[in-house]
């Protein structure tokens, strides 16, 4: 005897089964609002230039602050070579070249916490290190009368740098580019001569370090106030 078997096929295995039609996305452009011209509807508004607060904005609050982090002291840059008179050994372009690297390291440390995607991290750093932002920060220092006369002299010295970055100079303008170069020159100069003063200036600009920024900021603020009060007292004439 031959046994008969019945085989049932699933609906998706049956060639004659009905298929479900998936609607295709519409390619039609959205219509402008009533009373709005098509050119106005499609042209995005130009964003305003970033402010100082925008450049240093973080996506969330810092974590708990400590005086040290992973066993390292708060002075975190590699020690500079002992150079008593940098201006007698180096030209302004060499100090600006060094200062550019140090400035970007401060920017990268500032945005390292809280964690960001690499694209967002790079975007925020690039927004701070471009010469237009450096010019904005330098104007902040000058407006707050933070710099000493010696530091202002370094700025004047650094403005006369001759650079081959013609594309950047055309984009930002010669005046903005020269002022940004003068700030990098001052950063390189302070790194070689007075690192604590460099930390004070970078804190004044808004750079922080994430894990240990609060204690460093408090110490730098009190140190700066003591230095200011001491210099004011030394300038006052002695009573007879």
TrEMBL record:
Domain of life, per UniProt, equals Eukaryota
- InterPro entries assigned to the protein according to its UniProt record, in alphabetical order: Mini3_fam (IPR008226), RNase_III_dom (IPR000999), RNase_III_sf (IPR036389)
Q: Where does the RNase III domain lie?
A: 94-194
Q: Name one GO molecular function term.
A: ribonuclease III activity
Q: Which CDD domains match?
A: RIBOc
* Keyword Coiled coil found: no
Pfam families assigned:
Ribonuclease_3
Renumbered to this chain, region (Disordered) spans 16-52
Q: Which PANTHER family match?
A: MINI-RIBONUCLEASE 3
Q: What is this protein called?
A: RNase III domain-containing protein
């Amino acid at each position: 005897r031959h046994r008969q078997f019945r085989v049932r096929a699933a609906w998706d295995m049956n060639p004659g089964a009905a298929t479900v039609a998936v609607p295709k996305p519409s390619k039609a452009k959205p219509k402008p609002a009533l009373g709005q011209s098509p050119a106005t509807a499609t042209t995005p508004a130009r964003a305003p230039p970033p402010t100082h607060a925008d450049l240093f904005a973080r996506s969330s609050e810092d974590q708990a602050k400590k005086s040290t982090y992973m066993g390292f002291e708060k002075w975190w840059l590699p020690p500079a070579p002992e150079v008593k008179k940098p201006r007698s050994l180096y030209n302004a372009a060499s100090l600006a070249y060094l200062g550019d690297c140090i400035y970007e390291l401060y920017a990268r440390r500032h945005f390292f916490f809280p964690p960001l995607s690499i694209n967002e991290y790079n975007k925020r750093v690039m927004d701070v290190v471009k010469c237009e932002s450096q010019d904005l920060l330098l104007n902040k220092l000058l407006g707050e009368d933070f710099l000493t006369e010696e530091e202002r002299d370094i700025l004047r010295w650094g403005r006369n740098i001759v650079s081959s970055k013609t594309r950047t100079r055309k984009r930002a303008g010669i005046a903005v580019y020269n002022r940004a170069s003068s700030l990098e020159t001052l950063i390189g100069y302070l790194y070689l001569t007075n690192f604590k003063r460099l930390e004070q200036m970078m804190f004044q600009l808004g750079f922080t370090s994430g894990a240990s920024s609060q204690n460093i900021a408090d110490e730098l603020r009190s140190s700066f106030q003591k230095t200011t009060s001491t210099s004011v007292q030394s300038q006052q004439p002695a009573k007879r």
